[in-house]
Amino acid sequence: MTVDGALARVIRSAGRRAATAETEVCELCAARVAEGHAHLYDIGAARVRCVCGPCSVLFADDGAGRYRLVPRRRLRLPPVDTGVLGVPVGLVFFVPRSDGTVTAQGPSPAGAMRWEVDAAAWRRLAGTVPQLASMAPDVEALLVNTVRGLDEHWIVPVDDCYRMIALVRREWRGLSGGGRVWPAVEQFFKELTERS
């Protein structure tokens, strides 16, 4: 065997390993997943898991089990007065939980910041905005962006919110965010589209 032949084998092998590492797999059965794959919310771990089609059907629960299927619905809302919820940030998402609590989370350079929201205040707000009362607990969020003069309010799947957190974390520079983070956030909201 020549050195060139051995080197070519090593390069091909490394290329196959890199291609396999970049391919997303189901976090429950390890099958490859398509680009637009489903997600399950793991109640116990409080995280979103990538899943294949069969696992999304098999493990999705009616709301009583460990996993909840993350819906695909996105609904743009008219402005919602979230000031009554007592969260003083302009880029935040609110998630009603199956236990009746409500959390607010906002992106930061270190990941998500999290607050508990007064559940009674949330119920009062949902009484004035009927779409909020229709949200699926744990897996849908009210996503709000009032930063830099914007007034965006959406009901979205929680995986959209985690994508936004990852985007902020990736683009943030220095103390104030730098010049890349806010244009990236604005682009994120421009690319949101309604779907049922």
Structural commentary:
Helices cover 34% and strands 24% of the residues. With 196 residues, the chain is α+β, with helices and mostly antiparallel strands. It has 2 domains: 3-69, no CATH class; 75-191, no CATH class. The strands form 2 sheets. A 6-stranded antiparallel β-sheet has the order 4-9-8-5-6-7. Strands 2-1-3 form a 3-stranded antiparallel β-sheet. A hairpin with a 4-residue loop joins strand 1 and strand 2. Helix 5 (158-171) packs antiparallel against helix 6 (181-191). The longest helix is centred in the N-terminal third of the chain and has 20 residues, at 3-22. Residues 14-21 have low confidence and may be disordered.
Strand and helix map with partners:
Layout: H1 3-22, E1 38-42, E2 47-51, H2 53-59, E3 67-69, E4 75-76, E5 91-96, E6 102-108, E7 111-117, H3 119-128, H4 130-133, E8 140-145, E9 152-157, H5 158-171, H6 181-191
Antiparallel strand pairs: 1-2, 1-3, 4-9, 5-6, 5-8, 6-7, 8-9
Helix pairs in contact: 5-6
- Major pleated sheet: 6 strands, antiparallel
The number of E-state strands comes to 9
The percentage helix is 25-40%
Which stretches are poorly predicted, pLDDT < 50 over at least 5 residues? 14-21
Helix and strand run: HEEHEEEEEHHEEHH
Distance between the termini: 59 Å
Beta strand %: 15-25%
Salient structural properties:
3-stranded antiparallel beta sheet; globular; alpha+beta; 6-stranded antiparallel beta sheet; DUF5947; single chain; 196 residues
